[in-house]
Amino acid sequence: MVELWQGYGLPAIILVAQILVVVVPLLVAVAYLTLAERRIIGAMQLRKGPNVVGAFGLLQPWADAVKLLFKETVIPSGANQIVFIAAPMVTFTLSLMAWAVMPFGDGLVLADINVGIMYLFAISSLGIYGIIMAGWASNSKYAFLGALRSGAQMVSYEVAIGFIIITVLLTAGSLNLSDIVLAQSGGFWNWFWLPHLPMFVIFFASILAETNRSPFDLPEAEAELVAGYNVEYSSMPFALFFLGEYANMILMSGLTTVLFLGGWLPPAEIGFLTLIPGPVWFALKVAFVLFCFLWVRATFPRYRYDQLMRLGWKVFLPLSLAWVVLTAGVLVYSGSLG
Amino acid sequence: MIIQALAFYLFSAVAIAAGVMVISARNPVHSVLFLILAFFNSAALFVLMGAEFLAMILVVVYVGAVAVLFLFVVMMLDINFVELRQGFLQYLPVGTLIGIILLLELVLIFGGWVAAPEAAANVAIEIPPPAELHNSAALGRVLYTKYIYLFQAAGMILLIAMIGAIVLTLRARPDVRRQRIASQVARRPEDVLEIKKVPSGGAG
Lengths: 338, 204
Prior knowledge:
The complex is a heterodimer.
Chain A: H1 2-44, H2 60-69, H3 81-97, H4 116-137, H5 141-172, H6 177-182, H7 197-210, H8 222-225, H9 235-260, H10 271-275, H11 278-299, H12 305-334
Helix pairs in contact in A: 1-9, 1-11, 2-9, 3-4, 3-9, 4-5, 5-7, 5-12, 7-9, 9-11
Chain B: H1 2-24, H2 28-48, H3 52-76, H4 81-86, H5 88-115, H6 117-123, H7 135-145, H8 148-169, H9 181-186, H10 189-192
Helix pairs in contact in B: 1-2, 2-3, 5-6
């Protein structure tokens, strides 16, 4: 009995506790990201944003959550019920699953697996299923069109993201996320954003498209598709889509941080900067990338669908492919490839 | 170990059940979703065997790309299922034959393992010790040295298939108005704008 407890019981409890330590702050971050989005865009557009509920509007996300919880869950009569209910669950679960391999600090990672970056890429390529399933199961033309657009868009930009990940892998020489971060140690000029600056820009644009954010938010173009794939959803299923989308934004920002901005590493190896713990640096960098997400949303008009496809397939894909070849060539020539 | 065994039986049972559902589900979209479930459980089995790179590739390629396109096609096709099921008996002999051939091949492979365990060592190439090199690096090393010609050939076949697909579907459509960004950028104000002076206070 004692053996069973020490072999399985205790590790299981520790694992659940670790997962909660990651997931609960993540969900709080999602809640405050929605507030930050409304406040920051408000400030950029010279208005106030939500500032009434609590000090500076800090209780607004909770008010929104409570409102969504108490609404009625409507399932359309023509909908395919099981798939309709499963779709938001898939979206939300996938957006949480990916966090298992994210390194928050030196050794601070739930699952330090060899193929961490492949795992992240695999999970993020599955995000499309929640959207397609929702669009199909709703049995509504707007939802279906939104889902098709979203599917085509996410498949297209995933290719560019994959190639950019390969360039970073080649430079770091490892598939492990912690090793990728450690390969960038030694100050912010050693981070990969500098040698891979064009790829950094393309990667940022691609993750905007991958998370269906503005200026690539065609799947939920409210002017033409009402709200896209989630038009038939209400109450908690809608909230799950919402949470999943924002958790994915944070995840993609985390991925950008790990691949290009040196993860948990301080920007310079100077005394007082190294005193600040790694997770704080990680959070600050993620917050910076998220701010850029919101900044872009307040700045740029939405792309037209054919422009979106052209950008993905005719601009980003050849450029990132060429950069893979260039990086590999430079690495072989300089002899730093094993 | 007991957890591993339990996990193995769980994943394989779900994979087989999902496989059965793929061919028996009435709705083709459900079939594809069950296919995805089967892929997932196979990936989990790969992880259990310690082949996590293969597991991730399986998820990225099959679930993330191939099944998405399947789902697209199946969702948008208007298929009549009653009609589809009418030919079932007609195709049954061919299907059974293919099934039997596959089964025989599997029996040959696994029978070889059981009958002559040393035979596998003769065919297999040297595997670097796991302590020196983790499995994805070992896989890359084998793929790019010993099997480089087969690897390149596979790449060529894929390239030809891609070009074939593009050639088959590409058609010139002169009647479609396209955006030509170069000509838009090259446009100068003096080419398209004409400034006219309108006299004010003229005859109205």
